Amino acid sequence: MKKQQQFVATLCFFALLLLQCASEDLPFKAVNLGGWIVTEGWMMPSLFDGIPNKDMLDGTQVHFKSVRLNKYLCAENGGGSTLVANRDIPKRWETFRLWRINESTFNFRVFNKDFVGLSTQGQGIKVFAHAAEPGITETFRIVRNGDNPLLVRIQASNDLFLQAETEDSVMADYSGSLDDWGDEDPSVFEMHIVKTLQGEYQLTNGYGPDKAPGILRGHWSTYIVEDDFRFMSENGLNAVRIPVGWWIMHDPDPPKPFVGGSLQVLDNAFAWALDYNMKVIVDLHAVPGSQNGNHHSGTRDGFLEWGDSRIPDTVSVIDFLAQRYGSHPSLGAIELMNEPLAPGVTLDSLMKYYKAAYDAVRTYTATAYVILSNRLGEANSTELFPLAAGLNHSVIDVHYYNRYSDYFKNMNAQQNIDYIYKQRSKQLQEVTRNGGPLSFVGEWTADLYFHNASKQEYQKFAKAQLDVYGKATFGWAYWSYKCDPKYWSFKWMIENNYIRI
């Protein structure tokens, strides 16, 4: 019995030692390696420069206006009905989302997620939006005018062109002259591009299977290199948060159009982190179905389609990552999902997923932290506490940006600084509790909503956030390490003396 007690005591000692070692580096001073393994076009727009018709990538939202009727095409009721051309002002039912097949051929998805196609009844010339999945009859070619590329004709799968002779219906039966682009031609439409996406899906499908692998692998091997880990370590950082996409678990042959090779990139990052005594936070940034519809979520067309049915597949990704890196000495944490958006992602679904994914991580590691990202949108900042309080080594992640809201639009620099010290400090205190999950400001930036601030104002704004976010018990992570917009680039901000850690 005494030997048993000694054995148990020894196990407890080493368990406590492991827990102590796991928390020695806290709070983390980290930076996001955004735009590297998961594409975000705004961070490095030149990645998209070689794509033909790059203004018409997957997820581009367009309106079509009949030049003859001066009315917009509309999928009545958001879908499940014929197309008409009777709207003076385009809104949701008048918006079509492109699924790109090649540079000139597309499927059109409407508000209720149906696809536009030809009627299967009669002569097959009426145009409907009622297909759950796109097929041959839901495929259209957009022919752009050489002098004005926003003037277009739309060729249907029957080789005829769409025309709007009356407001009541749109037909696919125009076979007249294609030389006349005048205002009286019922087959001519103005195409208004109202929103675009520039993420991983848009990049890989835009270049296609022949060119995309070379483009991405060239980017991965040059955007972040070993010397960047030296730079980060020498400038006061002790961790990196690395966004990854769900397709990484299928490497080296992920589902099309995604490109294989990202797993080796993540392996390299772990090796470099070990060499420079840094920790890695693996962040599942893009989940199956998209958790927020944003370009960084791997979405094809901007629809949020993550929910209960996607939980098993998403847990599988976490299981894969935890199995591969759970015993790696550089693993600091696994973040289960980045920025789920309310109300599309319900609290009930998210809690079910977080618990299942947490259990998957714990299968492989008892000491790595597990990060639960708060929902964006209309959500209570403490809504995850009932779950997180019962999970050992759990962390609540909040993202603080003084932008993306008209509230900040007219603030000057000093007002932004005051907001950090007063409001952000209060918000952080709400998610920082003794004995509860740790708090993490997983994304923030020293960029301001306006762009005529002085260097001193940027310095003060950055310092204010370091002062406040430094009180997060798990730490903070700047967005991002490197990107074209300079104030978003931690590397540029350090090199030009805007930030001091």
UniProtKB/TrEMBL annotation:
Occurrences of domain Glycoside hydrolase family (ranges): 218-482
Cross-referenced InterPro entries: Actin-crosslinking (IPR008999), DUF7910 (IPR057232), Fascin (IPR010431), GH (IPR017853), Glyco_hydro_5 (IPR001547)
Signal peptide limits: 1-23
Keywords noted in UniProt: Glycosidase, Hydrolase, Signal
GO BP of this protein: actin filament bundle assembly; cell migration; establishment or maintenance of cell polarity; polysaccharide catabolic process
EC numbers on record: 3.2.1.58
Protein name per the record: Glucan 1,3-beta-glucosidase
